[in-house]
Amino acid sequence: MSRPPVALASLGGTITMTGNGSGGVRPSLTAADLVSAVPGLAEAADLAVTTLATAPGASLGAADMRRCLAWAGDAVRAGAAGAVVVQGTDTIEETAYFLDLHWDREEPLVVTGAMRNPTAPGPDGPANLYAAVTTAADPASRGLGALVVLNDTVHAACRVRKIHTSAVQAFASPGFGALGHLFEGGVHYGNPVPRHPALPLPPEDRPRPRVAMVETCFDDDGALLAHATAEYDGVVLAGFGVGHVPAALAETVSAARVPVVLASRTGAGSTACRTYGFPGSERDLIARGAIPAGFLDARKSRILLGSLLALGVPRERLRAEFAARGAGAPGSTVGCESG
């Protein structure tokens, strides 16, 4: 039986880290090193491996993601059934969403990593690699965009969050749950996710807009939000609960010269549209021009806003994009009226 072709690239991360312990572990292993350490992986797929970088997840940027998109696009055009990107888990919830926004192929683009480095007892990297390759090779994964696979669980890039600093089960999809799970060598899906048209990548020589993420907090005087709206190209405001801020911050939203996206800082659930009416409530902020993020958390909202601004999308279309991409079910929208 022929094995499906799968391309695998490594960017580094905990899964690639080695060291003597006294000075801490650092990324050093190549993609070939990783693959050679996984029993049975050669039988799961016909692998083509490459090392794009050897860096911790915290140091990755938009340029790295552009390289990933170019590499993965070339791989599937050459016949790969899917592509796997290996990286540090610190930023997976953001990098995977960046990839998902711009991935315009039916073939799956799977992102994985590890919580335990190879020198630790019971490293999870080999199992995660095997699961990621299995997911990328499975025809059932087609059309789902970018996926995050860890701990035998498949997450949609637009929903996944890192919810623990060090546990093996550090990733979850709050609110809607995971897309599927791996069992007995196969992927089993049971939870649909909205899939939207891919955004084109802006020209490489165009500077990526600077988008600030500001989280409101108890006794917030609004100075940080005021600075962000004056100095950045866009702001994501992570509010309390369903999208609330202290009343003193509301005027700053009204006066903002740049788009302000309203998300929730809670980690699960959607911003509201019309439930509360006090100054600083979601209804008040939307009336002042804030763009509700819906079910998108603040970190993913920042990625989306930056991508849209880089493409020169006008402010009125920003609201429509967030209404569609921040919705919870296929074909629905956030449903908030503009201010």
What does this structure look like?
It contains ten helices and 16 strands. The longest helix is centred in the N-terminal third of the chain and has 16 residues. The protein is globular and about 60 Å long. With 339 residues, the chain is α/β, with parallel strands linked by helices. A hairpin with an 8-residue loop joins strand 9 and strand 10. The model has no long low-confidence stretch (mean pLDDT 94). Strands 4-1-5-6-7-8-11-12 form an eight-stranded mixed β-sheet, with helices on both faces. A four-stranded parallel β-sheet has the order 13-14-15-16, with helices on both faces. It folds into two domains: 185 residues, 3-Layer(aba) Sandwich (Rossmann fold), CATH 3.40.50; 115 residues, 3-Layer(aba) Sandwich (Rossmann fold), CATH 3.40.50.40.
Instruction: Tell me the overall shape.
Output: globular
CATH topology of the largest domain: Rossmann fold
Helices and strands, in order, run as EEEHHEHEHEHEEEEEEEHEHEHEHH
Percent range for β-strand residues: 15-25%
CATH architectural type of the largest domain: 3-Layer(aba) Sandwich
Sheet with the most strands: spatial strand order: 4-1-5-6-7-8-11-12
The whole-number mean of residue pLDDT values reads: 94
